[in-house]
Fold these 2 entries.
Entry 1:
Amino acid sequence: MPYGFVNSMRTRPGHRDDVVAILLEGVDGLRAAGCRLYAVGVVEDDPDLVRVSEIWESKEHHDRSLDLPETKAAIARAMPLLTGEFASQEMTVLGGLGV
Amino acid sequence: MPYGFVNSMRTRPGHRDDVVAILLEGVDGLRAAGCRLYAVGVVEDDPDLVRVSEIWESKEHHDRSLDLPETKAAIARAMPLLTGEFASQEMTVLGGLGV
């Protein structure tokens, strides 16, 4: 079943746009890894929050993507810009539009 | 800018699948209303939770969709099956894959 994942991460003050740029750089390889959606966004009332909404072919595809060299490199570059506060939500996608 | 919305809703015990069915019935008209993604899902460790991840052309498209007759009808049918506990997250989508 398709797997949905929403991850909200807090950035160090002033580094939100840097984190967004890092997350968007690695997008090209995601489709081949089984990613259907990877939407990077920000929120109006919190200048230090980045949110990513993802849909993958399966949870296994998502989990394996974390081992890709480009994913690891992006995480290594982003981590110093993050506070370490993450909040994530998962779901098993049963249907809908665009999934 | 594209607008992302994730809504988690608690169903009355045993009514999760009914709510999922109602949410999936109205999917056909969403694209014309400016919806790019409408993923309905469930979570492994909570049998009474339904989660919907949406991406729209804009926040205005999303807000206007709530006035569509089919949306109003679906909400009216689902409400008696819900406890009233909702948790939602918004974002302005800056880029990514599939958006």
Note: Residues 3-92 of chain A form a domain with the Alpha-Beta Plaits fold (CATH 3.30.70.100).
Entry 2:
Amino acid sequence: MNFAVEIDIMPLKGLLDPQGRTVKEALQKLGIEDAQDVRIGKHIHMIIAADNEEEARRKVEKALETLLYNPVVEEYVYTLKPHQS
Amino acid sequence: MNFAVEIDIMPLKGLLDPQGRTVKEALQKLGIEDAQDVRIGKHIHMIIAADNEEEARRKVEKALETLLYNPVVEEYVYTLKPHQS
């Protein structure tokens, strides 16, 4: 069974996000003066195979915790749904 | 009125995504051999002010088209919802 996984890995709230700050300033120059809380992170899409949703979640969390995200400066959310292959 | 905007900017399907390829290979070394279609892009979060949803969408699309994404190599999706400030 295949699952489509969509992961967002974002800088922790309250941490300096220089990329977000740069985009906020660029938006102001475009006339979008009122953007707040601009934060820029990563989006990861993948399709994984697993026998069931629980196994799929275990795989995704293993990948996140050993490879994809840094808990000191980032947080993540992900969604997972069955995928027709 | 404030809107929370969540934007995903991803490499176009079919284009080489070297970052995605690297992650796919690293996942294989972790024992997650079956990841397919691994693609890595950007996730942007922001809060913007607008009189209504239509104006909010105009602002987001202006930001995307003049600043945030490159239509030659990327595609985007975004969601927007009212945000309590």
Note: Chain B touches chain A at residues 2, 6, 8-10, 23-24, 26-27, 30, 32, 34-49, 59, 62-63, 66-68 (CB under 8 Å).
